[in-house]
Design a protein that fits this description.
The chain is an alpha+beta fold. Helix 9 runs antiparallel to helix 10 and helix 10 runs antiparallel to helix 11. It is rod-shaped. The two termini are about 30 Å apart.
Length: about 525
């Protein structure tokens, strides 16, 4: 019985190991690398441009003219909520075009006066811009005094998004919650700093909103966006500038803004232009939207990194209530792109290339898609050396061990059903239906031993069938066989063969002759003749 227990324990242990291994494999399937998470997210991240152009009519002294100064432009970051053209960003990113402030008209008028009245006069006098600041300042003040009061300004606000594949799409504001304000009182608007934009598009890449209530301090976080320092970098080409940048950090706190609305603090770096950018977790899902950064005190107001704040994803969901946005939407681009990435990082280069080609057909020319497709095609041509499959080897060894343990267990279980203890044999004698005791030791072992169990009959295993027949044993009686081997191998084999001869109830004495002796039961001397040896 102890052996059977050990077999069961070993089997259970192996099964537990296999279950643990399966859980680890499942966990590995559910998790993705940081690189894959970022690649999933980048195509859905877009550059938001809020622009206010103008046409200014003014008179520099020689009659009215119309001037078109350089437009005022605010840039930020946004991202697709679903595949049907819904884009989320900060309200303060689109505010100049959505609720154009009064000062902007005056600013455009001043720009027009300087461009139309001051620069031509400087050129006429042969003075370059910046060469004579005193003269330039005098001309500016004179022109502004004369032309600015009569200037008429027509503002032309517009909003558009620029995707990393170069596509530019006009956008309109579908829902707006004003930026957070430190002021109070009548007429002061303060909101969640969120804006929902709509563009005419379909089959777009899109983000999935996570549950921000589940995030914890220390969770890794990644902010995607278009910081102004990259957009205006003189050493980068135009293609590189419209590809989202990524900064990494962690959640460092949970705070409230001045309106007592929840915000998440992060130490992930951010800069002007990152506003409205998605903050994603390790699976590439949105946990929040970057809303404001921290500035150093003083007139310079430089950004203090490590203290940036995010609107939680749950607040975004609340903002979207009542809008046509489908948060359960399945983006066709995402399905192809994600499938290609899964296969690529799983080593299936051909499957990855097929997925990337499908994604590129839906939305062509995304830089990341083109790069990954080129890399997959290169790996198809020149496959990298594959590491030894330790996981498969471990699984094979484990399964082989499980099979061996299972076979041993089944065998033990089968034979243990027929084993009886010496005490049980005694009870059989006392019950009035005494069993037939067969001594099945090999002739050599039997000959060396002077003792046997009282009343037992010796049957040679080598000649079992003939001797069992000659003994004329009733097939209906219980038969108990014993030997001297530790594992009762001889008696187990004899019992199996007796059942084949039609004996219905054949038992094996547990422990054999030694077990009988150790139980303190009597032995008798073997007869000297008259009984088959």
């Amino acid at each position: 019985m102890l052996t059977v227990r050990l077999g069961v324990t070993a089997l259970a242990a192996v099964l537990l190991l296999l279950a643990a291994g399966a859980r680890e494999v499942d966990a590995a399937d559910e998790s993705i690398s940081l690189q894959e998470a970022i690649l999933r997210a980048k195509p859905a991240t877009v550059l938001i441009v809020s622009e206010v152009a103008s046409a200014v009519t003014l008179n520099c002294g020689a009659g009215e003219i119309e001037v078109t100064p350089n437009p005022f432009r605010e840039t930020g970051t946004g991202w697709f909520l679903d595949s049907n053209g819904w884009v989320m960003t900060n309200a303060h990113v689109v505010q100049p075009a959505h609720t154009t402030p009064r000062w902007l008209a005056n600013d455009q008028a001043q720009r027009a006066v300087v461009a139309a009245c001051v620069w031509p006069e400087l050129r006429r006098q042969g003075i370059g811009v910046g060469q004579r600041p005193d003269v330039e300042d005098q001309l500016r003040r004179r022109a502004l005094d004369r032309a600015l009061p009569t200037a008429r300004v027509e503002l032309k606000p517009s909003i558009f998004i620029l995707m990393s594949n170069g596509f530019r799409l006009p956008a309109k504001v579908a829902k707006y919650s004003p930026p957070v304000s430190t002021e109070s009182g009548a007429g002061v608007m303060s909101g969640r700093d969120l804006a929902l934009l709509q563009v005419e598009a379909s089959e777009m890449p899109a983000f999935k909103l996570a549950e921000s209530k589940n995030v914890k301090i220390g969770d890794p976080i990644h902010i995607l966006g278009y910081p102004g320092v990259v957009l205006t970098h003189e050493l980068l080409n135009s293609t590189a500038k419209v590809e989202a940048s990524v900064t990494n950090g962690a959640i460092s706190g949970f705070k409230q803004d001045v309106q007592n609305q929840s915000v998440i603090q992060t130490d992930a770096p951010a800069a002007w232009g990152n506003s409205g950018g998605p903050a994603v977790n390790s699976r590439g899902d949105i946990v929040g939207v970057l809303t404001f950064v921290s500035l150093a005190p003083g007139p310079e107001g430089a950004i203090v990194q490590g203290f940036n704040f995010i609107i939680p994803a749950d607040a975004v969901k609340e903002f979207l209530r009542g809008t046509p946005v489908d948060l359960a939407d399945r983006s066709p681009f995402n399905e192809k792109w994600f499938a290609g990435l899964r296969k690529f990082f799983g080593g299936d280069w051909k499957g990855a290339a097929a997925g990337f080609r499908d994604a590129n057909r839906l939305q062509p020319e995304f830089p990341d898609v083109k790069r990954m497709l080129a890399e997959a095609e290169e790996k198809i041509k020149n496959p990298p050396p594959r590491p030894f499959p330790w996981a498969w080897a471990w699984a094979a060894v484990t399964l082989a061990g499980l099979g061996a343990v299972g076979v041993m267990y089944v065998r033990r279980l089968g034979s243990s059903r027929f084993r009886v203890s010496p005490a049980e044999v005694v009870r059989l004698f006392e019950s009035g239906s005494p069993p037939v005791i067969l001594d099945v030791r090999a002739p050599f072992a039997y000959g060396l031993s002077p003792f046997r169990i009282p009343g037992s009959l010796h049957v040679s295993p080598d000649d079992l069938e003939r001797e069992a027949t000659s003994l004329s044993i009733d097939h209906a009686r219980t038969v108990v066989a014993y030997c001297t081997s530790e594992a009762e191998r001889a008696s187990t084999e004899v019992a199996r063969r007796l059942r084949g001869l039609g004996f219905g109830d054949v038992r094996i004495l547990r422990g054999g002759l030694g077990g009988w002796t150790n139980a303190g039961l009597p032995l008798e001397a073997k007869p000297t003749g008259g009984e088959p040896a």
